[in-house]
Structures are given as structure tokens and as C-alpha cells.
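Hi Y.,

Following your request, here is the sequence exactly as I used it, all 480 residues.
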Amino acid sequence: MDAHTLMWRTNQTEERKAMDEEARYKDMAYGPIGAAVKAAMPYTEADPVGVHAAILALYSSALNGNILQPNGRPSVVWTALAGPSRVGRKGYALATAQTIVRDAIGDFLMLRREGGISSGPSLVQVMAENEQDSMTSEGGLDGRTLILDEEWSTTLKLTNRCPKYSGVLRTSWDGGRVSNVTKKDGKRVEVTVETPALGFHGHIQPSAWAKYVSLAEAQGGSFNRILTVNVQRSKLLRTARHKRNPLSEIKVSSSLRLAYEWARKEVREMDLNDAAAERYDDMRAAYEAQMDELPDDISCFFERAEEQVMRVACILTAAERKTVINVKALDAAQAFVEFSISSIKQLISQTNVQKARTVLPLDVKIREKLRMYGGEMTSTQLYRALSSRYTADEMYSIAEDMPDVEVTQVRQHRPGQNPTIYRLVEPPAEVEPEPVKVPARRRSPAKKAVAPPKKTTVATPPPARARAPKKAPAKKTPSA
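Below is the corresponding structure, written out as C-alpha cells. Let me know if you'd prefer a different format.
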């Protein structure tokens, strides 16, 4: 295949891919946000759904506290992009979204952006400090905080060890009061945030999602508050056409800037028109029926789907500088939430496949760890190497039956428990399989056992019987 044909085929593939993604995004695109994403797509390699998700997170975080749902709850939207490194273009999607909203919320991004926070007390402290810093500003109390976590997997690894983090995160999404108690100079000090205004956007690889997204946390409600979407590269931009950074050619959205200024003037409580209210009720009933049919370990990721639809619809409508949600905005919001549901189902499926491939028997794990650490470990070392997933009794009962592992207790002349040592040894000789030698040994005795009986049946009587006649002449001598 020559270079011209290869280039032609590549261009055809990229065009088909762009058309598919345009059709996929069509149902989600609505209002100024949808128009801004469409206008930016010729200048970015990011997935349009990923750009849309990032804009929703950034923009709703900037509007947090001023745009409320019909029931008075916050309208902030938390999103996460799941995709392989480089191929997913997660960072490209975020950079595109920042370019689009830079003119509207640029100061907010610069002042209120935080990195990955891995503990509940730290999260409360950061929001409280932002509130404290705003006391001297003209705008008054402002605790808005945006977490942009482009290494979400690393943060999840740490937050899984903090028992308070998930609770603070869930309560902040609901807009409820969060607090943390510390001691300063020997005195009890309580740090409180009455009305959290927390935004979130994260990036993660599918394999890391499978590893660090805990089912227990999901069932507690931590992950049904985050709309996760699968993303991939939309196209390859030709360097010859875009000699400088293509994102610099994206025009900022003046509509989003005007909507931001409109929303920040006062608190806006959104409402549904009659047709949208009917549609929303039908949607709620459909989601509840769907949840009843799904297993708990899957439905726990979607239990807040109807509220997520409402939140997205509120932000799409606020971008139009309106307070009444119509059916089109509601349908566009549902299309985005449905895409997130589909993405999470794919991630769950990949998680199940990965777990099925990686689960090994305990004896295999013990053998691997002993080989890794030089063939000898204490019970405590082995327990930690196995990630504390098994009890000491389980390890001992399995290792005791392993022919190549020796378990001994070392007696020490000091108080305390004697350490148990696990040592990798050569298996006993009788345990080793000998498929060739064993049959040969069994056959040879059989042949020798048959031969002797044939000889004994044909042979002459024993020598003792042959000597008896020779003793007769000795009896005749005395009588002579």
C-alpha cells in the first residue's frame, strides 16, 4: 500500500468517526453550551461528549449557590472522564472546555481551583478557608470550590483509607452542613461549612476505575453523584493545517459570559413548564422500574439518575438566562445522563472481566509472595504482602497443606508471641511425579514372580529327602 492510499484510507476513517460522534452528541447538544461545543470541534481532537461533560462541571461549579433546582437543592453537576491514556484525550477535552468558558468564568477558575484532596477533614478545611477569604470581598460570603483532579485514581487510592471523606463528599453534593473537629492549643475547635458549594471534575483510566471504585462506597452513594462518561479521540488534526495550538482558534462563548453575569446577580430558582413536568414524572417512573430490575451492585450507580437529569437541565436552561425548563432541555439532559449510565455499565462489565482474570487461589499467592521476597517471610510480612485480605488462620491452614512450604514457630527467650515463619522449600521426593519410572518398577517384579513357580513344580525333591537312604547301612553293623 503506497503512502497516498494509506493517507486516503486514514482520512476516510477519521471522517466516518467524526460523523458518528456528531450523531452521538446531537441529542445532548442544547442551548449556548451545545452550540459552543459544536463550534469548537473543528479545532480539537477531544470527544465532544467529554468536552460537554467538562463544561457542565466547570460552569455549574461557577454558578453553584445561585442556580437552584425547583426543590431548592443545588444544581451543581459533577463529572468524570474515563478513557485510556493518550487515546482518550481526557486532558484535551478539559483544555477545550476551559478555552470555551475562559471568558465567562476565568477568574473563578484561577482563584477557586483545587487539586486532588484525599481526606474529609482537608476537604472541609479548604471550603472553610475559601469562605473565610471571601469575607473581605465586595461580593460577601462565597465558599465556591472546584476540585479538578486529573489523577483521580491516585486520589481514590488515598480516600479509600479515610473513613470521613465519602461522607463529606456526599453531603457537599446535597448542599448540607459539613464540619470537622480539631484541637488547637489543647482546645477543641470545630470547623464548619453551613452550605457547601463544591464542584468536581476528574479523569481516570478504565483499568484504574475497575481497581479503585469501591462497591461499598458505590452502595453508600458516593459514585451515583458523579456522572462518568467514556471518551475517546475524535480525530487527528493535521499539523499542516494547524501550525499553532488549534485550541487558540476556538472562539470564547459570549452567551455563556452573559449568562454567568445574569446568574451571579441573584439566586435563581428553576422551574418546569407543564409539558416538562409531565415528561419528568414519566422519566422518574421509568428509572424506578429500571432500578427494580437491576442487581444492587449495578443499580447503586444510577439511583440518582432523575436528579442528575434535573441538575443538567437547570444548567442548560440557566445558560439561556431562563428560569423555566422546557421539554427540549429536559430531553437533552436525559440524553447525557443516559450516556453516562451506558458508560458505567461498560466499566462495570470490564471490571467483572478483570476480576475474573486476576483472582488466584491463596496457595498460588502465598508461593508467589515467598518467591518475591527471597523464600522466607514472617506471618506479619506475608499478611501485609497479601494486602490484608486473608486472616492468619486462613494463611496457616492453606500453607500447612502445601508440600513446598514449611511453617515453623521460632521460640524467643523474651515476652511476647513467638513469630511464625513461612519458608519456601523443595517439595519431598515422593511428591514429585515420575510418569516414566513408576510403571517400569511395577512391571519388572510381576515377571519375576511368575517364573519361580514354574521351576518349583518341575524341580526334583529337596536335598533332605535324597540323603535319607544313605543312613540305612549304618544300622546293620551292631547286629553282625
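The mean pLDDT is 83.

Thanks again,
Q.
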